[in-house]
Specification:
Layout (H helix, E strand, L loop, with lengths): L3 H15 L6 E5 L11 E7 L17 E7 L2 E7 L10 H4 L1 H9 L3 E10 L9 E9 L27 H14 L3 E8 L8 H9 L4 E3 L3 H9 L3 E11 L10 H10 L1 H15 L1
Helix pairs in contact: 1-3, 4-8
């Protein structure tokens, strides 16, 4: 971890050659959710391949570019696509962009994902505001010698998702009259979807939805002192006794159809940080 500081500095310096504003908010858009960046004004798009030390996003539905601009007048940086452990990247590399966006000036991370629903009260197309998480990836991005310039050795994780932002997101859903639950996200490695027995296990241990991302990024954001809002789009139901085959095309289609709801919550979060 000790070499990350200089790499972050190099990446930030490069981004500043393309975009000079200081963002208030960093946004990570998950599978099929990249359309939100089209709402930005005065935008500058930088492919990940151009940014020093950024990995390449190879997952379906991930454009692999950083979009910098203003959302409703507030400077933001938006990741159109992320990296995953199943792509073969170590977690420190996956979470490197979070470090960079924080150094650029972002004090709030809004992280989104497409996920599978485990709670039988949820439905495909619903949103879930993440209240807590379980890390079953089998790794942690903070393993290694700690660099105190990036954060403390033992960051507290009693409330990784900022409670006030959770309440704000749920209030937006009530005002706009769409379904948004509060619940627990469990992160697994992937890339295969889970077996029926695994879905039963994940539900028993307290998970409401399951996905293959988000948790490493949130750990690093908390380590760096950022506020966090997490939003999951439930793209398929993972009920072991009524399991249907999920396809990438269906998952991406559901995610895209949920974008207006997601956009409403993100806009409210951005305004709260302005």
């Amino acid at each position: 971890m000790l070499d990350q500081y200089d790499k972050i500095t190099e990446a930030v310096a490069f981004i500043h050659t393309r975009w000079s504003l200081e963002p208030k908010v960093a946004i990570i858009l998950g599978s099929g959710l990249g359309g939100i960046s089209g709402s930005l004004t005065e935008s500058v798009t930088i492919p990940y391949d151009d940014i020093p030390h950024f990995a390449r996003s190879t997952a379906h539905g991930h454009a692999g570019q950083l979009v910098c601009g203003r959302l409703d007048g507030v400077p933001v940086v938006v990741m159109e696509g992320r990296m995953h452990a199943y792509e073969g990247y170590p977690l420190q590399q996956i979470t490197f962009p979070v470090r960079v966006m924080q150094r650029l000036g972002a004090g709030l991370l809004v992280v989104t994902n497409a996920c599978g629903g485990l709670n039988p009260q949820f439905r495909t197309g619903d949103l879930m505001v993440i209240d807590d998480h379980i890390n079953l990836i089998g790794d942690n991005p903070l393993i290694g010698i700690n660099d105190e310039r990036l954060g403390s050795r033992f960051p507290d994780m009693s409330a990784p998702y900022t409670p006030e932002l959770v309440d704000t997101a749920l209030a937006v859903a009530r005002r706009e009259d769409f379904v948004a639950h509060r619940g627990v996200y469990v992160a697994v490695t992937g890339p295969n979807l889970e077996t029926r027995a695994e879905y039963r296990f994940l539900r028993i241990i307290g998970s409401d939805v399951v996905g293959m991302s988000t948790v490493p990024e949130v750990i690093v954001a908390v380590h760096g002192g950022m506020k966090v809002l997490g939003i999951s789009v439930i793209t398929d139901m993972c009920l072991p006794d009524a399991l249907e085959v999920a396809t990438v095309e269906k998952i991406l289609g559901v995610a895209r159809s949920a974008e207006p709801k997601l956009r409403a919550i993100i806009r409210a979060a951005v305004q709260s940080a302005s």
